[in-house]
C-alpha cells in the first residue's frame, strides 16, 4: 500500500513538473514571436515575465521532494567513506529526523507567511492575481520534502542509494 502511495505521489509530482517545465519555453516562445511578428499584440502580454517567475518558483519548490526521492540532492558523502555501515545507518537516521523537523518548521512558517499575504490582499502588478499563488509554493514544497524525510525515517530501505562516486 505504501509503495503505491509513494509511486502515486511521485507520478503527480512528475506530471506537474513536466507541465511547468514545458510551460516556460512555450510562454516565452509565444512572447518572442508576438514581439517580432505582431508588436501591437505583444503589449497585451506584459505579464509573461512575471508568470515565468511564478512558474519557476513553483518548479523549484515542487521539485524538492521529487529530487530527494531520486537521490539527486546535493550531498556531502565524504563521511560515508570513513565510517562503518551501521554507524552510517544511524547518522542517516539522525539527518532524516533533523531534516523532517526543519522542513516541517519551514512549511509552518511558509504557511503563516502565506496567510499574511492573503490577508493583506496583495496582487501581482501585471498579472492581477493574488500573490498568495506565488507564496503557496514554499509550504507545499516543504511539506513534500517533509514527507520524504519521514518516509526515510519510517522506511530506511526506501532511501535512495548513496553515490560512491563523485
UniProtKB/TrEMBL annotation:
Residue ranges of every copy of the Tripartite ATP-independent periplasmic transporters DctQ component domain listed in the record: 43-151
Q: What is its main location?
A: membrane
Q: Which UniProt keywords apply?
A: Cell inner membrane, Cell membrane, Membrane, Transmembrane, Transmembrane helix, Transport
Question: How does this protein sit in the membrane?
Answer: Multi-pass membrane protein
* UniProt-listed InterPro entries: DctQ, TRAP_DctQ
Annotated compartments: Cell inner membrane
Cite the Pfam families for this sequence. DctQ
What residue ranges are annotated as transmembrane? 12-31, 51-67, 87-111, 131-150
The UniProt entry's sequence similarity note says: Belongs to the TRAP transporter small permease family.
Role summary? Part of the tripartite ATP-independent periplasmic (TRAP) transport system.
Which proteins does it associate with, and in what oligomeric form? The complex comprises the extracytoplasmic solute receptor protein and the two transmembrane proteins.
Q: What is this protein called?
A: TRAP transporter small permease protein
- Which organism is this entry from? Alloalcanivorax gelatiniphagus
Amino acid at each position: 500500500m505504501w509503495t503505491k502511495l509513494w509511486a502515486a505521489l511521485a507520478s503527480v509530482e512528475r506530471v506537474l513538473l513536466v507541465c511547468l517545465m514545458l510551460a516556460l519555453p512555450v510562454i516565452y516562445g509565444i512572447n518572442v514571436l508576438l514581439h517580432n511578428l505582431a508588436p501591437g499584440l505583444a503589449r497585451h502580454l506584459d505579464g509573461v515575465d512575471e508568470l515565468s517567475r511564478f512558474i519557476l518558483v513553483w518548479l523549484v519548490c515542487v521539485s524538492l521532494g521529487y529530487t530527494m526521492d531520486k537521490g539527486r540532492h546535493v550531498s556531502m558523502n565524504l563521511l560515508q567513506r570513513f565510517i562503518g555501515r551501521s554507524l552510517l545507518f544511524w547518522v542517516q537516521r539522525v539527518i532524516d529526523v533533523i531534516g523532517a523537523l526543519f522542513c516541517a518548521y519551514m512549511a509552518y512558517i511558509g504557511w503563516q507567511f502565506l496567510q499574511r499575504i492573503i490577508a493583506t490582499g496583495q496582487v501581482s502588478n501585471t498579472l492581477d492575481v493574488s500573490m498568495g499563488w506565488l507564496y503557496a509554493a514554499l509550504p507545499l514544497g516543504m511539506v513534500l520534502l517533509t514527507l520524504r524525510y519521514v518516509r526515510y525515517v519510517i522506511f530506511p530501505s526506501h532511501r535512495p542509494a548513496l553515490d560512491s562516486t563523485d
